C-alpha cells in the first residue's frame, strides 16, 4: 500500500495532462476510493490546474523530479513523455501539496475566492491584504490568500520571499504557510524567505513576536524576539536562532546584503535580482564565503568586489556569466 501511495503525484500529473492510460486512471480512482484524503487533494489540485495557478520555478524542476520519482520504476519512460510539461506540472503539484494550502482550500470557500500574486525576476510588488496587512513580495515569488479572511484566522501561503507588516488582531492569528515552516503572529513585522529551491528557510523578526511551527514534521515550536533571525535547514529539519540587528538594511530598502554567504547562495540571489544566468565551472568556488552590502551597484561591480575579497575570474559568454578559479 505504501508504494502505491508514492504513485499518487505521477498519477495526478498524467490525469491532468491527459496522458493517463485506462489502467492508470483506474488505479488513481482506486487509490482515491481507498483513501478519501487523496480525493480531496486531487480536487484542490484540479481546481488549481483549471484556473491556471499551477506554477513553479524552473530552477527547482529537476531537483523536485528526483525527489518525487526516485522510486518509480518507469522513470525513464516518464522522462521521455513530454518531459517539460510533465515535470512542470508534477513539481507544481508537489509545491502545492507540501504546504498547508490543501487544508485551507478544503474548507467551504471556493477557489474563485483565492487571490494569487506573483513577481518576475528582478521585480518586487506591494500587496495590501483583506485585513489591511501589508506584504512586499520579492522577486520570483508567489503569495496566495483568500479574498476574505475567516472569523477565527488569517492564513496565507508563501512560495519565495516576502516582507510582512501584519495588522494586529488578537482574535485572529495571522499564519504564513511555507513548504516546511509555519509562521504564526498576531501583529508584527518580519521578513520570511522560503524559496522552493533554497536549502534553508529564514525568518527575520523586526518587531513584535512570532511563533515558528514545523509543517508536517516533528520540529519543536520556536518563539522569536525582535532582531533575531531563525534559519531552518530543510535537509535535517534543524533550526538555529541568531542575533541579526544588521538585517534592518534588507532588500526591502533596496539593499543586497551577504553575511558569510556561500558563493552558491550568492549566485542564486544574483540570478533572481538581475535575471542573468551565472555558470560556475569549478565547484570549489561554491564553498567560498563572502560578506558585503550593496545598494545601487551593477552586477559587474558586485562580482568585481567579491572577486577581490576572495579571487575568482568571471567573463561573459553567450549572454551568460561564466565564473572560474583564479589561475
UniProtKB/TrEMBL annotation:
Keywords from the UniProt entry: Membrane, Transmembrane, Transmembrane helix
InterPro entries on file: FecR (IPR006860), FecR_C (IPR032508), Ferrdict_sens_TM (IPR012373)
Domain of life assignment: Bacteria
Keyword Oxidoreductase: no
Bilayer-spanning residue ranges: 85-105
Domain FecR protein: 116-211
Domain Protein FecR C-terminal: from-to ranges: 255-322
GO molecular function: sigma factor antagonist activity
Protein name per UniProt: DUF4974 domain-containing protein
Taxonomic source organism: Carboxylicivirga sediminis
Amino acid at each position: 500500500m505504501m508504494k502505491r501511495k508514492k504513485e499518487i503525484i505521477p498519477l495526478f500529473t498524467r490525469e491532468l495532462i491527459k496522458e493517463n492510460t485506462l489502467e492508470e486512471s483506474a488505479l488513481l480512482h482506486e487509490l482515491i476510493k481507498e483513501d478519501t484524503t487523496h480525493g480531496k487533494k486531487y480536487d484542490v489540485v484540479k481546481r488549481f490546474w483549471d484556473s491556471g495557478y499551477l506554477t513553479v520555478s524552473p530552477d527547482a524542476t529537476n531537483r523536485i523530479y528526483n525527489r518525487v520519482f526516485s522510486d518509480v520504476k518507469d522513470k525513464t519512460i516518464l522522462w521521455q513523455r513530454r518531459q517539460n510539461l510533465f515535470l512542470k506540472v508534477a513539481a507544481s503539484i508537489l509545491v502545492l501539496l507540501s504546504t498547508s494550502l490543501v487544508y485551507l482550500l478544503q474548507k467551504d470557500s471556493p477557489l474563485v475566492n483565492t487571490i494569487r500574486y506573483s513577481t518576475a525576476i528582478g521585480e518586487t510588488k506591494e500587496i495590501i491584504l483583506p485585513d489591511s496587512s501589508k506584504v512586499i513580495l520579492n522577486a520570483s515569488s508567489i503569495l496566495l490568500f483568500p479574498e476574505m479572511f475567516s472569523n477565527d484566522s488569517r492564513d496565507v501561503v508563501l512560495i519565495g520571499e516576502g516582507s510582512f507588516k501584519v495588522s494586529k488582531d488578537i482574535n485572529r492569528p495571522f499564519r504564513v504557510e511555507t513548504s516546511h515552516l509555519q509562521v504564526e503572529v498576531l501583529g508584527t513585522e518580519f521578513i520570511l524567505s522560503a524559496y522552493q529551491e533554497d536549502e534553508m528557510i529564514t525568518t527575520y523578526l523586526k518587531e513584535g513576536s512570532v511563533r515558528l511551527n514545523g509543517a508536517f514534521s516533528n520540529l519543536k515550536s520556536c518563539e522569536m524576539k525582535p532582531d533575531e533571525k531563525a534559519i531552518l535547514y530543510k535537509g535535517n529539519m534543524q533550526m538555529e536562532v541568531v542575533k541579526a540587528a544588521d538585517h534592518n538594511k534588507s532588500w526591502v530598502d533596496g539593499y543586497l546584503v551577504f553575511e558569510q554567504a556561500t558563493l552558491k547562495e550568492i549566485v542564486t540571489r544574483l540570478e533572481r535580482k538581475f535575471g542573468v544566468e551565472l555558470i560556475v565551472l569549478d565547484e570549489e568556488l561554491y564553498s567560498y564565503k563572502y560578506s558585503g552590502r550593496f545598494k545601487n551597484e551593477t552586477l559587474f561591480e558586485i562580482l568585481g568586489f567579491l572577486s577581490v575579497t576572495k579571487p575568482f575570474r568571471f567573463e561573459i559568454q553567450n549572454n551568460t556569466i561564466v565564473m572560474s578559479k583564479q589561475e
